[in-house]
Design a protein that fits this description.
Layout lengths: L2 E6 L5 E6 L5 E5 L5 H14 L4 E6 L5 E7 L2 E6 L5 H14 L4 E4 L10
Parallel strand pairs: 1-7
Antiparallel strand pairs: 1-2, 2-3, 3-6, 4-5, 5-6
Length: 115
């Protein structure tokens, strides 16, 4: 199952990433100043995966990626793919599994490892 993972960047901003069933990042959201805004947009996007737009791009180095657009606003940018077919597979995985994704909040960084 895919997951929407909320984390805090070193800059203090929050972001969410959609990770595949295999744990690979499919896309990363824009930065958010407040965690609650990040969480709200993750929930909103989760409900809109099937109806949002996916705009494909090609870098100058020949890599492919896409942006997730909702109501004319770019919500997230995908990782780079080597082929256009892989981009299409990434989008297909979002449409198929995105609405079932669980939201995991790791933004507190309260991880404690004991010896």
């Amino acid at each position: 199952m895919a997951s929407l993972v909320i984390t805090k960047r070193f800059s203090g901003d929050y972001k969410f990433e959609l990770t595949s069933r295999k744990g690979k990042t499919i896309f990363t959201s824009n930065p958010y100043e407040l965690r609650m805004d990040c969480e709200a947009d993750a929930e909103r996007l989760k409900m809109l995966f099937e109806s949002c737009s996916y705009v494909k791009f090609k870098t100058t180095k020949g890599k492919f990626f896409f942006r997730v657009v909702v109501d004319g606003v770019v919500m997230a940018t995908s990782r780079k793919y080597s082929t256009e077919l892989m981009v299409q597979k990434g989008i297909a995985e979002i449409v198929k599994y995105g609405s079932k994704a669980q939201i995991l909040d790791f933004s507190n960084n309260d991880f404690t490892f004991t010896d």
